[in-house]
Amino acid sequence: MVAGEIPEQYLDGYTRLLTEVTATGRRLTRAELESRRALGERAADAGHGLRALVSAHLAAARSVRPDSPGSADSTLAAVQQVVDALAEGYERAQRLAVRREEAARREFIDDLLYGRSDLGRLAQRAERFGLHLSHTHAVAVARGPAAYDEGDPVPRRVEQALLARFGDREVLLTTKDGLLVCVAPGQRGEILPAFARQARAATGGGRVAIGRPQPGPGGVVQSYEEARSALELAARLGLDDPVLRAADLLVYPVLTRDRQAMADLVQAVLGPLTAARGGAEPQLATLAAYFDSGCVAAQAARRLSLSVRALAYRLQRIHQLTGVDPTDPAHRYTLQTAVIGARLLDWPAQPL
Length: 352
Hints:
Structural class: alpha+beta
Helix content: 55-70%
Largest sheet: 5 strands, mixed
């Protein structure tokens, strides 16, 4: 925008003020400077560029002719004060606009991930941020060694990497409760794995969980909840995978859907282990290592830093206490399901 495109209202009284200052040699008053700041704010709110605004004032200043060389200094000083005041007001308006934009974005993200807003209105607001909620979306979350806010270096680094590759449309990267969160179109299957790589690199090896693609305005919050639940399940079960997919963990929510039934199973099958020396915890660790190793005794023994003979003795002792043989395929499913239930219910640390 060139100087001539700035409306006259943003130069209101400017040449008259310069003429008076040039004649008297005085400095601008506080009220006069504040009026210029207000004009700078109004120009910013109206969408006029600061460069064009300054150019218009400099061009107008050329029409003021000093009567003497000394008065030229007063004119230049006044122009400098006016330009400083305009720029200050302009920047003040921009900072306020940024804060409003950040607040609107944060409110939208909270409503999007918690599903608290009317879905129709939420879909309309989402278009402002490049999301079309009538389509299918998937969400990934990443947890690092620290809690992250949206303006932190780690989220910015991940966002810049994603935007450089995929552009700024249809991908939303934010933070929630200290986690990195990425929302992507469900049909763009390459985006969330790329987010996982970037997030793990930026967080120094953090863990990422990816929810399933879900349709419609409520799909984002469903996928987000799945991803968060996957992180929590991995922590409870001691899973080592750096990148988790909710689709691969669907069996665990099924197992815990009837909590009381699972608690009864754990109590009935594993309850006798509390009578073992050291309590149930060492026996549970033995069973978990054995099952996680595919029931290969040598591999399980290495995980536990035991000899194969010592592992065999522990498994035999578990058989004696529970009446269920971990090495018998007919008994294995019941025992392994009970061990998974104990992990999910945090037993024996938490009473059933």
